[in-house]
Structure formats: structure tokens, C-alpha cells
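Why does residue order matter? Because the sequence determines the fold. Keep that principle in mind as you read this record.
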Amino acid sequence: MILFSDIIGVVIIIYTWFRLYDNHHMDKRSKLIYAISGFWLAALLVLDQIWQLIYEKKVFTEYDNSALNVITCLIYLMIPLAMTGMLCMPTLKTVLAEKILDIVFVLVFCILPIINIWKPILFYHTNGNISYTKTHDVYVATELLIFIFFIRQYYSRNFPFDFSDNAMLAFAQILVIIGVVANIGYNDLMVTWNCLSLCYLLLLLAIEQMFAKLDSVTKLHNRDAYVKYVFRLKRKADVTVVMFDLNRLKHFNDTYGHSAGDAYLMAFAQTTSNRLKKYGELFRVGGDEFCFVSTTAKKDTLNHILLKLRDENKCDKEYGDYPVDFAFGIAERVSGENVFATVERADENMYHDKDEQRKNRPDEIDADRSYVR
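Structure:
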């Protein structure tokens, strides 16, 4: 009998591969690792179909039971093999101890199904029917917890996901939970495997959605993400907005080329973001314009941080030898005010700061660009 649920799962994986191939944001290594994880899931579905074809036999021999047991063990082996892809993903915030612990868990999940080929510690087959041991439920439940932890560790922690991205990750995790419940509670493995296939697709969609809201030069969230973020804040009482205008960008573009200008933008964006990240979110909203939105920090706190940063006049060394040269304006939301109106007031204050800078060093500011208020 053909299991159309397995065919649906394979189609989902192939579609995910197509999207992966068409993805121009992920690096080649990450794309290859993600594709290999999908290969193990696809192999799982193919093995499940083979299992079903053997199961359809009316008379079972000891050889048939052994064959079904081996195939089931291989099916269970495919899941930790798919998880190993996360271990190989390039990460920035995974400490060595965590990495070692992750490898140990994956090895355990791989070894137990292999042992089960000879000794039934997870499940066994009788006349084609599968029976589970008590160890099986512990194995599957622990695997679920580790998988959810992996998603947080290798995706949520290492990618700049916002609310909607994390919501998609949460749905991916819910699918895995449903799959585990179907496995443990109802022995419905067809639901389990399809849940894993859908989770595989949702993880990629979350990454794609995240990249679509990132500025490729500064690695900050872009204007589209900014608009969505501010719109969600419209009913929050305490909102402080900072508008930035970067000086001397045209000088870098004209003197050293646009690649140097991009490096200057990147250095400023990341340096400023590092100083402010614990207070809120920094967005690139235009060519050399940035907006910072906070729901925790007050005007005086942010003003102190930014004046100190401007006095330092140097970007963080890891981003290159670039100045920190900008105008900024801050506004706190008043009662009943739309957040976008707060942004406009911050923008006006930024232009006022730009005017003051022009008085003190008109040659530098005016040489940077045609300044029009």
C-alpha cells in the first residue's frame, strides 16, 4: 500500500530544498548543511514506505520481523542524524561546553536505535506489529526536549529574530510536540513524520522571513521591520525614540569608493547597536538614517550614552578604523500620542542637532552632502 502521507512529506522536503536553492541570503555552507538534514528526513519517509510494503504481507516470518525491526531502527536513527545539521551550523554564541553536551546527546540518540537492532531496548516486532518498551517513551520525550532546545540554541539565539520570526519558530516547535504526542500516545507515526517535515519547512521560512527584514549592509533590521515594530508599539505608554543621521558618508563614498562607505555604515551601525542593544532596537530606515526605539530607557539615559559615544569618535576596533560622526534627536512619547508622531519629533530634534553641528564645523557637514532640512 502506498502511504500518501509519506509522499506529502517528501514533497514538502523537496519544496523546502527548492526554496533553499533559491535563497540568496544564506551562505553555501549553511544551505548545504540544511539540505543534508532534509535528506535524512526524506530517507526516513522512504524507509517508512518500505516498512509498510513489508507489513502488508499476510504471513510473517522471523526474517520479516527482523527486517521490520531493522527498518524501524533506521527510521529512528534518521531523526538524530537530521539534528546533527544544527551542530554544524555556523554559530556565534554557542559555548564549547554546550557544543560538547549537544554532541553527546546526538550520539546517544544515534547509538540507542542501533543497539535496538540486536537488543529490544526501545521497541520490538511480533507478527509485524510494533510494541514499545518503557524506555521508548523516555527516549522520545527526551529527544523532543533536546530538539526544542536546539531550535532555541542554534536559531533563536544566533539569528536576529523578531516577534513574528519567533512566532513561526514556536509553531515549528508545536508541530514537533504534536508529532511526539502522536507517537507516544497513539502510535500514529504517520502524523509524527509529517510534523517533522512541516517543522523542517517552517524553520527555513522563519530564516527567510528574518533575512527579508535585515539590511544587507549593516545587518540591522530594515525599514519594513521598523514599521511593523513601531506599529505593534502604538498602544504602549512608555516609548522613547532616537533618530540618527550619519555624517561624512558621501565623503567615504567619493574618496574611497562605495565599498568603504558600506563598511563605514556597518561600523557605525554595529558600534551604536552594541551600546544601545540592552535598551531597545536599532533600525536602518534610510540611506544614512537610523532609528532607535526603546520601551525601557528614558531620554536622559540615552542622551548620556550617545554623547559619550560621540565624544569617543571611534567605532569599535573590530569593525575597522572609522569615526563615530552623527547627529541625533530624542523624543519621549507623551500621553495619547501616536508613536509615529513621536518619531517625527525625534526627527525634528535630530535636524536641530545637525544645524548646531553645521555652525561649529560647516566645511565638514556641508562637504558631506547637500544639506536640506
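The radius of gyration is 27 Å.
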